[in-house]
Queue: 2 jobs
Job 1
Amino acid sequence: MNPWDLIMNNAPALAIAIPLLGAFVTPLINRAGRKAMLVWVIAVLAFTEFIALLLVYQVNTYGIQVYVFGANPHTLTVPPDSGGIPVRIIFTIDGMSAFTALISATLGLVVGIYSVGSEKFQTAQEKFFALLLLLVVGMMGMALTGDIFNFFVFLEINSLAAAALVSYHLNKGKAVEAAFKYAVVSSIGALMILFAIAILYGEYDALNMAMIAQRMYQTGFSTYDMIAMTLILVTLAMKCGAVPMHYWVPDGYGEAPGGTSAILVVASQASLYGLFRMSFTVFGLSANTSSLGWFMIILGLLSMFIGVTMAFLQHDIKRLMAYHAVSQTGYMLLGVGVGLATLGTAAFNQYGLYAMEGGIFHIINHALYKGLLFLTAGAIIYRVGTSDLNKMGGLAHSMKFTAVFFLIGAFAIAGIPPFNGFASKLMIYESVYQLNPFLAIVAAIVSMLTLASFLKVFHSAFLGPKIYDVKEVPKSMLFAMSILAFFIILFGIFPNIAIHYLVAPAAHALANPLGYITKVLGGGA
Amino acid sequence: MLADYLIWIFIIIGLIFNGLGVIGLLRFPDVYTRLHAATKATTFGSIFTSLGVVTLAFWKLYETGNTANLVLSIHTLIAIACLLLTNPVGAHAIARAAYRSGVKPKMAVVDRLEEVNQDD
Amino acid sequence: MIFNLPFITVIIVMFFGFYAMVFRRNLIKVVIGLDLVESAVNLFLVSLGYVKGGVAPIYTSAPSTHMVLPTPQALTLTSIVIGVATTAMLLSFCMVIYKHYGTLDTRKVRRLEE
Amino acid sequence: MRNVLMSIVFLILLAFMLYVAINPGDFGSSTGEHFVFGAPKFTDMDNYFIHNGQNQTAANNIVTSIVFDYRGFDTLGEASVLFTAVLGVGVVLRLLGGGRNDE
Amino acid sequence: MIEDIIQILVLIGMMITAYLSVKSRDLMECAILLGVFSFLLSLEFFILQAPDVAIAEAGIGAGLTTAIFVMAVRKTTRWEVEE
Amino acid sequence: MMSKIVRTQANFLYPFILIFGFYVVAHGHITPGGGFQGGAVIATGVALVAVAYGYDTIKKWIKKTHLTAAEGIGLLCFIITAFIGLSTSFFYNFLANSGLIFGNRVPYGINPGYLNTAGTLPIMNLAVGIEVLGGLSVIIMYMMAYGREVKQ
Amino acid sequence: MISIWLVAALILMICIFLAIARAVAGPTLADRVVALDTINTLIVAIMIILSVVYSEVIYVDIAIVYALLSFVATLYMAKYIEGGF
């Protein structure tokens, strides 16, 4: 068997195994010197990105992909002698999974390149890069897996790696305290998910998502399902930073080193993916999707409004951006929530699907521009040494590129036309308006407040007299930022590329849980 | 039937010693006496209950010839050895630590260890 | 009723853990609460798979099929190792926090941070 | 005030969960009596493991065959969780006695 | 019957130790009671016919976690509320 | 450093714990136990020596870098074993029932240890055992090491 | 014949409860550690007895692991009391 076939056949497994292998080898390879380690890490991240692209290609070409670990052959989901049940761990990759995996791998690569410059003077760098790889593994695993316990394991990898990364710059204990908070919140959330998994297992004797969904549909939605659903959805909403449970977000994002906040954004988007996956695929057939959808919509509204209001009060640049991240998460919840609320009715084809596409498009846009903003914030802190907005000023004189990138990010997050934020926000406004005009009005107001807030930041950080005599940041950091800026402008001018190849397959995949179940279980349902 | 009686005797001895040890743990006045009662007596008692198991295993081996019982007896003997090795040392470590941390025996009149230490 | 006692224990221990995590302000106490919750979930998993009169899922003697369910035990093994990893990491965080702030009281830590 | 409110919420939740734990409802209704609890209406996955585990993986211990074969990928994830935790401990404790002095 | 009584006693012991380890102000006492809780949990796994899990809990929960807790208390502070 | 009795006992007990840990690891597919449990047992042995002799003595014998390397190597063995089955599928148990090394069937019943069985399971057990041994020991070592310089 | 083992296990279990009482009440830390040590020994005995009850030979392994490892926990406690590390 030639290597190309091997890669093509085993792409889902390699997407996890290669970065994992990379993480295991990184501390060992560090003995050969820092350069070798960096080359290794970047190579592994690039290969992961390649595999993620390959997955998107496969899904777009051949439909939903399954990969069964340890089976012979690897597509044998249901062993013939088992009576129609899947017994092994199955990776199920549909449009949404591939979409999330692509975002994770892309941001991982970008942050990896960025950190080559920004972490140059730290000790224990091999641990930092190994943790970065593990975080990528956690996000990719959460996106690709079709097994509910496997989801828990990857969630745990994700949380622990993220907590360790947050504490990387010890910063007089502040970072460690933020990391402690993050780790406690994540662990308790993961334990609740494990509890819910145990309930679901005890009821259906299955750990595969498709199998659970099918059996839940057959036997009806019981009280125990209700408990499990509440635990899972509330926990995942907490992990993605929706408003009543958002208190860990500013600390975690604010204290994370350099560009790592950018990848933490994607880490919480992986939880968002989990939220969508659970509510659409696992519980979507049996539970009352309308009330679930309204639950998401209300969470989204609260997040949007409170996030942006709190952001006005901040004078720490990273905390401010963190509150904006909460606020932007609201848009995604709103868009997809409208889709879920109208799922199965005539209104779905009218505007629900469009709203979902808007929400999902917003995920990738948010990852790109919030990633860019956090990277610029990291660049500012790298040169200036403080994150307090009141102490900054006049940076545009010396850090021209950073200023331009910051402006691109700020315009994108506020939804100014030539950038990508405009496209997705427009989709959300148009479709949400048809469900309830009030929602669209709130979204528009929040968008304006966001613009105001970021103009304030730009004014206080970059304009004004020259205070600091600093140089431009290293080239690797600029290169990483320029990648993101390029994609922001690309998706802003040609949104159809993203929608056609990434967003629409994802939205259709989410809206069609029966296709998912049929692919795994092979008929029936 | 000899084995039955033997097992009964072992178990009863073991239980009595365990019970006495725990009662001593509850009733004695200070750390050292409690340590004395608890560790010594419970080690002794646990070994005797385990010896009952060994007797049963040998008896069954003799009766049925099933080698599983041999494994049982050997493993139980290993467990007894572990108990014998670890417990006294643990007790010693606790007593020494308690003495060093300044816990005084309640009703003791002479403290030879202190005298020795003073001589140094 | 009496056979539900493991589950009642699970709920009660879990709520003690939550109590420690929410109402106690010491960071190590929070970790203790987390440990309790995790133990409770482990117990829940294992007792979920228990079959009355079943034997452990290991073929030692004659091939018996009346066994307790093996999957929850496998899941619990995973969960235990994850738990010790989390505990170790959180406790090392505690040590560093104490080093820098001189206290483990959450409210004092927050005040010192300002 | 906040504490009182939280306590009330806690107690209500506790009572609810206890009620659920005491009255398992339809959680064990079908095959009932020989399970303590749970009594999954379905036991086919575990039965598959019990019946075929020894033949397919040739291990006497079914738990090990599940941990390392059927759900081996979980074990890989779990091992990497431990690896992550060790890296995290190393990162956090790297300054005082953790890193430079010994290496 | 007697098996059930043993199991009930183990479970009640677990509840008691869990409660006391939450209530106590002395973190060392908490660590010790958590150790006892872990031992009883291991015994409960034993009774529930899960030997693999019982070994893991005995090794990790009872041995290592107690050691780690003791070291963490040593490196920080023993009393929950200072002053 | 603890008293001489404890140290002597630790000397005596450590090989015993080591042997028993390897027994638990190697017989993982026959008796209860396996990689995690055995690794934890051996790591507790390391913890025993560490507590008996004190950190200052023990750091000359056991280097943290060696333990980290052991952890990495164990994980590498594990994932490479999984990779070898890649031509069929990841984690494919290519040795079970094949008649090669480790490829025999376990007979029913109590046995003195037919170790030559169960395909890739013993290899994975051993790999995970090494990994867990390294990981847990290095956690113990880090926590013992932390904050020592300040006290002196 | 089985019942005597069960009765023995029950009595040992009650003994454990008494030891827990000492672990809770103990005025000094050393008292609690003594109680912990006692509980370890008793649990090892119970495990050995129960493995006879369940007639599973391999369960004795757990007791061995237990006897070996609880010792380490005791040593750590003792070292804490001594003021070590």
Note: Chain E has a mean pLDDT of 84.
Job 2
Amino acid sequence: MTALLDITDLKVTFNTRYGQVTALDGVSLHVNAGETLGVVGESGCGKSITALATMGLIPMPPGRIAGGSIRLAGEELVGASPARMRAMRGADIAMIFQEPMTSLNPVFTVGDQIAEAIMLHQKVSADRAFKDAVALLDRVGIPSPADRARDYPHQLSGGMRQRVMIAMAVSCRPKVLIADEPTTALDVTVQAQIFDLLNEIQRDFGAAIVLITHDMGAISEMADRVAVMYAGRIIEEATADDVLDFPQHPYARGLIDCIPALGREEHALKEIPGVVPPLHLLGAGCAFAERCEHANDRCRQEKPLLVNHDHHPAACHAVEEGRI
Amino acid sequence: MTDTPDYKAESPAREAWRMFRRNVPALVGVVILSFIVLATLYGTFFYAGDPYNVVWAPHERPGVTPEFPLGTDYLGRDILAGMLTGGGPTLAVGAAAAAITMVIGITLGSLAGFYGGWVDNLLMRITEFFQVLPALLFAMVLVTLFSPSLWTIAIAIGVVSWPQTARLTRAEFLRIKELEYVTAARAIGARNKRIIWKVILPNAMPPLIVSATLTIGIAILFEAGLSFLGLGDPNVMSWGLMIGANRDYILDAWWPVTFPGLAIFFTVFAVSLIGDGLNDAFNPKLRER
Amino acid sequence: MNSSYILRRVGYGLVLMLGVVVLNFLLIRLAPGDPAMVIAGEMGGATEEMLESIREEYGLNKPLVVQLGIYVGNVLQGNLGESFFFNQPVASLIAQRIGPTILLVITAQILSILIGVFLGVIAARKPNGVMSGFVSVFATIGYAVPVFWTGIMLIILFASVFPIFPVEGMQSVRLRGADVFTKTLDIAHHLILPAFTLAIIYLAQYARLSRASMLEVLGSDYIRTARAKGAAEKTVLFKHALRNAALPILTVAGLQFGNLISGALLVETVFNWPGMGRLAFDSILRRDYPTIMGVLFFASAMVVVANILTDISYRWADPRLRGKS
Amino acid sequence: EGGTLVIGSTQVPRHLNGAVQSGIATAVPSTQIFASPLRYDENWEPQPYLAESWEVSDDGLSVTLNLVQNATFHDGEPVTSEDVAFSIMTTKENHPFQSMFAPVETIETPDAHTAVIKLSQPHPALLLALSPALAPVIPKHIFGDGQDVKSHPANAAPVGSGPFMLDEFTAGEAIILKKNPNFFIDGRPKLDEIIIRIVQDPSALLIAMENGEADIYPFMAGSQEIKRLEKSDHLTITDEGYAAVGPINWLAFNTKSEKLSDVRVRQAIAYATDRDFITNALHRGVSTQQRGPIIESSPFFDDTIEAYDVDLDKANALMAEAGFADGMELTIDFIPGPREQQQSVAEYLKSQLKKIGIDLTVRAAPDFPTWAGRVGGHDFELTMDVVFNWGDPVIGVHRTYLCSNIRQGVIWSNTQSYCNEEVDEILNAAAIEQDADKRKELYSRFQQIIAQDVPIYFVNATPYHTAYDNRLMNPPKGIWGTMHPMDRLEWSE
Amino acid sequence: MTKLLDVRDLTVRFAMPRKGLFGPRPLLEAVRSVSFTLEKGRALGIVGESGSGKTTTAMAAIRLTEAASGQVLFEGEDLLALPDEEMRAHRRNVQLIFQDPYSSLNPRARVIDIVREPMDLMEMGTMEERNARVRDLFKLVGLRPDQLNLFPHQFSGGQRQRISIARALTTNPKLLVCDEPVSALDVAIQAQILNLLARLKDELGLSYLLISHDLGVVRHVCDDVAVMYLGKIVEHASRSALFDSAQHPYTQALLSAAPSLARRKSKGYVRPLKISGDPPSPINPPPGCAFADRCPRAQDICREVQPDLEDKGPTRVACHFPGPIAA
Ligand SMILES: Nc1ncnc2c1ncn2[C@@H]1O[C@H](COP(=O)(O)OP(=O)(O)OP(=O)(O)O)[C@@H](O)[C@H]1O
Ligand SMILES: Nc1ncnc2c1ncn2[C@@H]1O[C@H](COP(=O)(O)OP(=O)(O)OP(=O)(O)O)[C@@H](O)[C@H]1O
Ligand SMILES: [Mg+2]
Ligand SMILES: [Mg+2]
């Protein structure tokens, strides 16, 4: 079975004042129709860049897709013409962003903004589009949608705005919906509403969802499969249960053990020392080696590959060597 | 551990300076300005000449008589001598006016921003009131009322231009006041005076320094405008005065107005290049965390 | 838009104007020169008795407070007094000149905003491109040139080298009897140099500002949203970005108005434009207090009106300020 | 079709009524709007105007004017002797030139067209004072309504009986006059319209002249303007037409100030100053030198007076004699206005007087009132000033030298505080002397004394020039220049 | 056990900008008559949604925000009634840790000066003693002494939070108020800081008032938990009581909304309690229970009568119809 969205060996570089840095270093991911893929990792590990690269929205310059391929339903997106990308964006593949407060244009009504998305991809009248927009607002659970459609973003609460974003994203029934930390700016009760909504949407529209988050709890609730990223690479990838219950990579283990989350017995929080190294300081070895208690010389010199081990794929020499 | 790369203990000011040094236009500005300042300070040392003396026939073209490389004005006075002596007052008025502007603006702006409430209300109403008066017109009235001298001009320019600084300071204070390190200072028992002077003001300085730089430029243009209108100090040679004095004769002689005009232009140009450079240097977006 | 806001804004504007009246009056009455002397001087010298009678006639011998009271009262009734110099009411002097000033200022404002914003937007499209560099340099230059000097240079250029534009005045006297169309064209022809001179400095500022503001807006999340929808670059630039980038431009346009009037004063003097600026300048030289006060009053009023209009249009342009409907 | 004449002017009139306002700015339009009893030709000879004839009684105490019958004001009212009487008395009371009509006691009006001026003493200057520039006949039915004439609203919208009537007056910008179809001289005026355009910036006015936007530019004094317009093919430049104005550019001393009370210091300054340099270099040869208190083009001028040609040795010697061998500090003011005449001379003096040890500070006044306050208040040491003779010395010269005219706070009085009883006697005698030769004699003595006492160092005559379009016929070249009805002016073709 | 902090009927109002020409200034009631106590050596967590008044409560309790009414007894002394100078002296007993590690340190000061500043202000000891103490504190919070002379921007978020903690500890405070101390940090770093806080509490016998919207964090660090909703405490209990048998429907909603590793999509997890909508505006709060509009159990009385915080079963709760989640 070929995946709906299939990213292989994606490489993205940026020109910075430290010279060229590699933000994505051979990322491979796939999502199947109707599936939710969770992507987790600490800040700066490349989650958003992966999403933006897929949307064709990497700022170029300074960014550049230096290699790899992104296929959507078999069609190659890397190197596709801007016009083709535009036609695809919003229609076949849509995205919702982290900050619902700033992701909507403050000077247009939300109804107009949704209607615009519809009109960009479907030949319908403005009236029709606006009516569709109202219907979508209703669908995402906004009360009195006809009135709300005439509101400006600032007149809505954060949760409502994120619903508007979702309505906009699904307006053309995209095959893939990328949600880049859609709830970090929201309160938990609202976050729960949004998660529930995303699940409903997936059920109704059958879209594949890529859920980017740094919250393992969210992964547990939402994802079928999980990819763990670290410093521009995928370091572990498997079903949610596998990763949560049997994490392989020391980073994945740490990530799970360090959360003071509910639903687990009292436990001492595990610390992962240090921070994610800045991209320009990445050496030849495993990017996690500096923070890893299992690291040896090999780890510091050679980048581990994402290969299948006992359980599921992880990129770690220690796991491979059976040291952990 | 890699969590703290081997940084030197670099203060924000030093870091800004490092950024500034890399900014080519800003360096060009520094070079131009230094040249102008040096020329006005020491120029007469190399090129002695009394700018008030009638030394030659009027309206000698530049480059014709070697003694007067920039020619003479309508009275037959040496333009180069005027340029060299005229820069001092122009720059001095610019700097003094900017200083006055900053002092009034920062004082009122920080009081308004820090204390808020009725203090803010009152001060902002005053500020708005001053902003309603067209600056040059108001400055003209002030200068005429208190008879033109370098000081009255500088004060008049200061009096008309402080509102902008006050607003900027206030905005910065309002912004910084809400930051947690200010609350932290209060939480450890710092008094208001200390918070204003030691905590908020230093952090509000970057935009204020940029604004001060630009204010110098504006003040120089202002002084030139006033002198041009004949409201400058007539006993002090300044570039604006030269333009104003020679303005009646522009159809016969372009040089007596062109050279001082260029001098003003280059000064303000250099100052604003420096201002832009400082702005960039202070802009955290342009440097890494 | 709620009319209570407009009402409040206008009310506040009136209070400011009252303040202007009082301040101007006080300031100018503190003047060292004796206004009676002015009038006498203009008549060609005077005796002490004559001076006394002039003081009597113009109310100069009354206590300051009384003079202020009379003045404020008169202003409230629309009477700005008689010019010391001209044998005419100040109001009619200003009435003759406010038109040309408004024409000049508004034309310059429109010119500078249109061209400036256009340049700024073009530049923002490629922040590191040639156009962008040009706009930055041009903006810095435009800002640094003394406006009167630009005017003089243009006069030199267009008076002797390329005499294609008139370099002084607003109308050709010879066309007094001509039809409206010819007259309009004539005024437009005369307007070109002064308006351009005045516009150039603000044009530069608007270009720079709109470049910066566009760059900022283009980096914002909602622009990314628009792109993610699949909107074309042109739509993104002119529909989504410019509407937002226009807000700071609008603010500056309002704040700039006072400076524009100051600039107009110099430009009018340079180009012999028959506006309020020159009247102000001449009146200051003549110590014609009522006229100075009148001009300051009207110039401030223009700024107040411009500010009110800016605030209102800002609220119109930025739905965030409109409040819940 | 008579066409339009555009007059360019740098001077701003306060209003248009010459009866209560002196100065060129008002006089030019006022002389077009108002007629006067007499007018003058190029040779200082009186000519009939509103008065078709006139007699002076032998004792010189009565002058009878016989008015034309057909003169009407622009509003249709006839011009009567009542109007003449009213006008002269109004002028006497309100015009700053008090000496002009001071001896006039009453004016009798035996009939509608006869006016008899009764004088308290002989007043030879009277006939010149009846010129258009000084004695406009204003309508009694308008100005006699009890309002103060100096600020009468009609001053800005005057009704006269002159060749042109007011069409539009934009204060400080333009005065538009149109032909008076009922002018009492047949066939005049020739022109349909006169537009006086006020352009305060001389460069702008130059351009207007060059482009043909203006046809005539009178009272042009700047050397660059004169030099430049001389090059223009379609223009004629002349300095004729200013004989009666007698504008003298001078350096006045405050003779009561400590350092300058010593006549030797004043003489030293006079000897140190190079009149030649001023007229030739500073003024580029357009100015003529002026050596005494009476304009050199006047018949009363005495050219034998001491001229104080430059002599630095003598100047230094005088300084030493006066006890100022080590030099001194002085302040010089100048009257604000076109800077070439006064300010540039002041600044020249600053560098020149250094040579005799005088450190001169140029004190500028931002505006006229400030200067007038200082000089009128006798709060000055030296000042550059320009003062007009106004035709007869009685009108324009006496005021500067009479002890009785030392008046605090009054500008263009005897602000030098110069007082010499002999001078007073001479001037008072000259004022009533009817014999021309004797009068000339008196004025000669006066000029000799002034030359010795140096209350004033005379520099030059303000080089008034007129530039006008070559196609203009009968340009105003009389003694009053453009302050004279332009009813004869016309376009060729 | 002794009461360290006893907050009684604390109310905070903010005046909002006037609407209309002569309209009254609307009042925003950020904290509405809140009472709680904190015992020595314990940690009280305050949870609640954004805008519920957590920060305001804490700030008013230590008099960094002006309270409209109420009392704050700190070791029996009413802080709100103290003269300014005495309050200043008291500040050494109460210290603060903020949410945003980037804005909580003065960017223009070296960290050594930042940490030493409280001692400078209180004029404690000699300069050498102060610097020595800074060094000790640096070690205590896990920073290296060679970093003393750096500026804040040269540290990572977690390190900055350590600096904040060091500064807070400088004066040997009795109470540490932590306002969302980890919510701006990455999970991996969060753990470092939470562990540090836990360690310090034990080692130094500190009391905490810890604010968070993350129930997991509160559960990990605190002994008692208060839940706030629209300016009021709606439930207050010991940790175990609250997490195991919450009585207030809002607390239950919070608990069911918080993501948890135990809830798996693979196991077909469906949220048992769904609440809709957002909290009402704190300007003119509703007369009855503020949660009534979103509450599945709400009856008419809830919209009319404000429930008081009372002992009802396992927890103190402000609800007319407390009880476990209805099935
Ligand atoms: N325009 C850019 N120029 C240079 N580097 C960039 C740029 N955009 C992103 N990067 C780098 O790429 C890396 C990945 O960034 P990305 O935004 O994908 O992180 P993330 O995983 O989404 O983090 P977060 O959780 O903070 O959103 C970061 O190290 C960042 O510094
Ligand atoms: N200085 C202030 N002026 C006006 N309103 C304020 C001010 N500070 C807080 N508020 C308001 O008071 C209410 C409570 O705010 P507070 O910051 O205490 O909430 P919080 O629970 O800490 O929220 P968060 O989780 O977002 O930090 C909010 O509605 C807030 O908008
Ligand atoms: Mg991201
Ligand atoms: Mg908070």
Note: The interface with chain B takes residues 17, 273-275, 277-278, 281, 290 of chain A (CB under 8 Å).
